[in-house]
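agent: user wants the full assembly modeled, not chains individually. Plan: 1) parse entity lines 2) check alphabet per entity 3) run joint structure prediction 4) return tokens. Steps 1-2 passed, two entities, 940 residues total. Proceeding.
--- entities ---
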Amino acid sequence: MKIRTILLTTGAVLAAAPMAVAQDMADSMTIVSWGGAYQESQVKAYAEPYKKLHPEVEIVWDESSPEAVAKLRAQAEAGNITWDLVDVTAADAMRLCDEGLAMEVDHDEILAPAPDGTPASEDFGDMIVSDCFIPQIAYSITNAYRTDVEEWNGKEPQDICALFDTETFPGTRTLEKRPINNMEWALICDGVPYENVYDVLATEEGQDRAFAKLDTIKDQTIWWSSAAESIQYLADGEAVIGSSYNGRFFSAIVEQDQPLEMLWDTQVYDIDGWVIPDDLPEERLARVKDFLYFATDTQRLADQAKYISYGPARASSAPLVSTHAELGIEMAPHMPTNPANSKNAFVQNYTWWADYRDDLNAKFQAWLAQ
Amino acid sequence: MSDGSDATNADGARRVSDSSDDGPVLAADGRPLKQSLQRALRRQKLRALGLIAPLLIFILVTFIAPIADMLFRSVENQIVSDTLPQTVQTLADWDPDSGELPGQEVFRDFYFDLAVAAQRKKHTQLGTRLNYELTGVSSLFRRSGRRIDDIGEVYMDQFEDLNAAWGEEMTWARLMGSEDWLQEQEAWNADAAAADEADRDFDRPLPAFEFGADVRAELPRTAAVFDEFAHYMRTDNQESVMEDEPWEVAYAALYEDLMANPDAAAAFSGENATILSEAADAVPKFQAVDYKAAILETEEGWSDPQVWATIQTFSPDYTTGYFLNAVDLQMTPDGIQAQPRDQQIYVLLFKRTLFMSLMIMGSCVVLGYPIAYLLSNLPLRESNMLMILVLLPFWTSLLVRTSAWKVLLQQQGVINDLLVWLGLVADDSRLVMINNQFGTIVAMTHILLPFMILPLYSVMKTIPPSYVRAAKSLGATNWTAFWRVYFPQSVPGIGAGCILVFILSIGYYITPELVGGTTGTFISNRIAYHISSSLNWGLAAALGSILLAVVLLLYWVYDKIVGIDNVSLG
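--- prediction returned ---
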């Protein structure tokens, strides 16, 4: 809706001074993302429709999001920012904002309101975890298990604590090689209520408690550092239960038909979104803003869910989520935000981790190495 | 070369003819021979240098300089004194052992530093830096930055209530700026407006801001804040200070200055003097801010003396802190201490990296030597075939080879399946061969093997077979002929291969990351983590420097024991 009015106004200005407006926006744009199926979904849902509207724009994709923070810092130090728009996790966005590497934005000013007129900042709501962050999708780190494990005698894991129950569910686990999420799950399975997890984890005893719980499965766990590894371990039968991103599980289970089943209990929500590098030249910034306004509107975010099972970050997009572009199945039941999946979801505390990350990571790595 | 030898010949000739002369020996052109020789040599050296100059410059610019710059970060720590310049000075006198918080002056200076830093978005960077040393500082700075302006607003409101002119940017520009600057800026503004009117491009740079004659002396705090403000406006907004009123903290600075120097107005003239003297008369009646209480109110975290002690400890421009962290020590307000046991990891990782690199090097020698021997002794047809088998994996992508080892070695993998099928291993006790030290050593030995075989082969190729034949014909057994005659001649190849393999493996990253599990990771994995994930580049640089030093040290030891002349790459 809104995009049309914008187009109309720019159209009117264009008629008056065609050259002047064309010069105001750069004709090429470098977007940084994660590669794989996720980037593909962005190309199809955002970039291709945008190119239809603006055929003169060339979009270059760079798959550097895993190292985005370091590379952006290096670019800023060298005084040569080559990226225009960067897809990062919420935690990285906070760090980039803290470091002054990402631009602070006024969400209501640069983003489209919902179709019913709700301002963007309300439509995105709590997803805006940092002034520099423009949310895009909600995903979750969750678990899945193999459905063909004989030793389990027909029992199936019902909750997160199956990870730690080596009696009922023997076999190798696979978990991410970092403290985030693992520490929370350990405490929750050690009897800490959701709302107290971070208070407990802030104390020395709480951390010891989490490590003690993780100790019980330490020698039966393979630690992964890239999410593809974890899916591979589960698909090979190398591990029988473990964590990964819900979109990866979706493609393994639904698209590749692996004998896996989702364990949505205590999935940990995380958010992914855009940041604009700080100090972009005016023309490039104008192009990025134009693209962002388009790519983060209600319909575009809902469209992305046709290609990957990540939930759109706007509240107004949820009702528009339809079916998978190729398989034709309903996407809603596979979304982390689907009511049936999210009833026991756990919300990660980004600010807490921003403080404790350095400390806990050192402890976690030392614990792993011992 | 030719110049030098000519000179030498001439020297010989003269020496014979002038042997009775006591003066300096002269060359054919009449110059002293020594000089002439030096000239010739210098020219020769310059020519040689000219030849290698392109490569030298390339290496210096693209390799040495970036590495040096990166390693320099291991000691660099200017961020603290750059962000909190005044606080660092006043805090120096505070005794952290007193158990009490620093005094009012520290909090006052801290307020001014933090407020300016928050405007320039530098405070969160400092928070990130100090969070490496003390957990929680990161969000302390981030949250305080949001609320720090409340303090300045108290003064801003009072100044503006006193005289509405204080809320206008021109009042400040006239008060702070010099006459010259004012005129220049006005002219620039006029030109910019004219260009805008005529729709022309206007890219003349903004005139640099310049303080009036006595401003810095009379109103030091205000000038310091305004200086930062002018710089910020110019660099970040490309605007002059005439476009915006200064930050809230400038009002607090002006209040402090006028309280300290009530006669400041005397140094000014005209409107400036009027408005200043009016303010100077009014400020003693202003509601004053208790900086300490106000800052403690923004965030209670500041009431922890530990935070201040950490700032004090890390206030010097250069620090050994990163190096200490890199060897599991830490710098605390009470001196250097060991890290808590549950955070000690780097020494272990260094030891492990060295141990595993030596293991890999050893297994490469054991596996590579016979192959290189075969390669150099088989007839050409067979040896070519064998060479292709050596080179084929060498040309294959590293990731493919690493993943292939995963497929082979994992518990549901090819080797375990085979062993189970043969009945050598029970199905429920399959061997764990990957995601541990064993897997890393196997995969890396395979990957680095060509680096051992190739130098060995090129050295063995040059050993004449007749030597061994001669030894045998003189009555040596096969073993003696090999061990006493052949092996010593192949040692330079072993040396070269060992150095190559060892140095390559000590900095290996991707294979240990993929197959190392928890017991097979190297120090390089932690370096990569600190570079790309935690952004603690100082610690990464310190770890890298230590690694570099260890390699150089081992190289030196090797040179002492084996002799670097005994290394041959063919």
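agent: reporting back. The interface with chain A takes residues 121-122, 124-125, 127-128, 131-132, 135-139, 142, 342-345, 348-349, 410-413, 435, 513-514, 517-519, 521, 526, 529, 531-536 of chain B (CB under 8 Å). Residues 1-8, 10-19 of chain B have pLDDT under 50 and may be disordered.
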